[in-house]
């Protein structure tokens, strides 16, 4: 009889006050709980071990994305069939794990726990909702993946995703990078409703504004390198065309150019040419990387990153 090995894995940073409760909650639904202690200055690792967690400790704080990489590496070493990723700070309810596991049984490779479907998310602070929606839109623009909660830290990965997902980022942008990888490689994903607590004294170890800026900056970099013809070459052509149209309009209506108009036309055409060549060069570089590493996109790592 075929037995499925299910693990829960969680990055942790100074969560000694709550992590035991999270681990014990997870153990009701999974075979093993992995904790990646990302350089905590408290006794997170000791508390996690005493609660039955398998602990791997980063000697220094490397960032959320680096901790996620370790989670994926350990899942592959464990030969896990299913991996639940969740936050260790008590925001997520382990009793909702079965809700994420169910779609995996029907062919999904990734299940995202969403705080915003089915009219959910009323308890999410307004400033967080706005920031998350902006990042959802940015993730869609970067890779065409449409989800309601691109920044959710509560996810379930099937065997195919565990074995194949790769990403570069060591920071909070890793969640969006993973979604872009899932879309690029035609893995199946879906969303299920979850709930999230925001009433905890230490519900987040990172300033939400800094988190949003960090993720947005990384997504913008991905947008330029993943789809350079769309984000550089096409706007560049439009800018050149606009400059030429202005030139034609002034010749037809006025018959001469002032210094300001000449400077504007020159700047528009020069910027447009620069954007066109930038887009073409980035496109060629992306194609070269894809050929060097089969199955990889231009923005993805050329190795596991571990």
UniProtKB/TrEMBL annotation:
Xref: Gene3D superfamilies: Spore Coat Polysaccharide Biosynthesis Protein SpsA, Chain A (3.90.550.10)
Keyword presence, Cell wall biogenesis/degradation: no
GO MF, one annotated term: glycosyltransferase activity
Protein name: Glycosyltransferase
Transmembrane segments: 229-251, 257-282
Annotated SUPFAM superfamilies: Nucleotide-diphospho-sugar transferases
Enzyme class, UniProt record, top EC level: transferase
Record-linked InterPro entries: Glyco_trans_2-like (IPR001173), Glycosyltransferase_2 (IPR050256), Nucleotide-diphossugar_trans (IPR029044)
Taxonomic source organism: Methanosarcina mazei (strain ATCC BAA-159 / DSM 3647 / Goe1 / Go1 / JCM 11833 / OCM 88)
The protein's Enzyme Commission number: 2.4.-.-
Keyword Chaperone part of the UniProt annotation: no
Name of one Pfam family that matches: Glycos_transf_2
Domain Glycosyltransferase 2-like per the UniProt entry, residue ranges: 10-164
Keyword terms, alphabetized: Glycosyltransferase, Membrane, Transferase, Transmembrane, Transmembrane helix
